[in-house]
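INFO  loader      accepted 1 record
INFO  loader      residues=153
INFO  predictor   begin
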Amino acid sequence: MNIEKSSGFAQNSGMGLNPVILVVDFMKGFTDRDSPLGSNLDNEIKATNELLNIARKECVPIIFTSVSYDSGFQEGAHFIRKIPALKILSAGSEACEIDPRLERNEQTELLVVKKFASAFFGTAISSVLSHQRIDCISQMKIEPQRNLILSHL
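INFO  predictor   done
INFO  writer      dumping tokens
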């Protein structure tokens, strides 16, 4: 028995009226299996594309995130020390580019560059969502050992 459900928690509240799709870190540094940080994410790319195609057809806004560091890696601070392989994510490098299989439209689909795991910490994404009156986020992200995660925030 699920304790949360039986006690009245963990109920579905449904989708909002103004959703957004947030595609977190589907960048070449993580999706290219030859990259030190990469793995085979062909299935995750395919599943994400299915969602993106529906969102584009329905005119649902799409926001991508990527990670990028200055040449001295000072912005990464302790995160770089903890995971030295992140140094491949230097500004302007191919590793920071969104995987082209997702066919990001640079004119209409925002790219938020971040320094840490969170799409919100240290970025302007909250302001963008507020300005667009977004009330529901469907987030596609890759997590180690768990592959593709779709969550509604």
